[in-house]
């Protein structure tokens, strides 16, 4: 992420040509990795066109953040034990809210691993929605809160576990999620927020 010289703190925006704007919000979604393994999906090549969670009570969590701060990236790490390429997947953003409710939710997120669906660069085509962490899941890094910094937002990041012996990399680049057009795709992702009954 870049430093844009705005009221938002250092390393808070992936693109300084469109810096964060206060009073607005953006979002990405996380799905429990284990629940995603049980989901009913439609996959053509590398594009998901349907994801239906199947366990009663399960839902995707909507993570609110400042606009123009979502940064979904993947980095090749070289060959794994099997000689194949490996990747670190990462989604970072300036998360909104520093209240006790938001802090409690983030403490819970730090206990799990997730598949993340993130819209990149505000795009509106089949490459715009990245699905990261499919093979091994992404974990949330610990957040340090400073109520005087970043206009009430905090930097948050979901990333492939990369620490020493616990490193678990992804075996492929992210897949995509897309259904015919932008409105249909957004509606399908939003529908994942409704708990399965």
Which key phrases capture this entry?
globular; mainly beta; seven-stranded mixed β-sheet; four-stranded antiparallel β-sheet; 197 residues
Q: Can you tell me about this structure?
A:
With 197 residues, the protein is mainly β. It has one domain. 13% of the residues lie in helices and 34% in strands. The chain has 3 helices and 11 strands. It has helices at 33-38, 100-109, 182-191; strands spanning 26-32, 40-44, 47-52, 61-65, 71-79, 85-96, 114-119, 129-132, 139-140, 153-159, 175-177. It has a 7-stranded mixed β-sheet. The protein has a 4-stranded antiparallel β-sheet with strand order 5-6-10-9, with helices on one face. Strand 5 (71-79) and strand 6 form a beta hairpin. Residues 5-14 have low confidence and may be disordered.
Tell me the layout of helices and strands.
Layout: E1 26-32, H1 33-38, E2 40-44, E3 47-52, E4 61-65, E5 71-79, E6 85-96, H2 100-109, E7 114-119, E8 129-132, E9 139-140, E10 153-159, E11 175-177, H3 182-191
Parallel strand pairs: 3-11
Antiparallel strand pairs: 1-4, 1-7, 2-3, 5-6, 6-10, 7-8, 8-11, 9-10
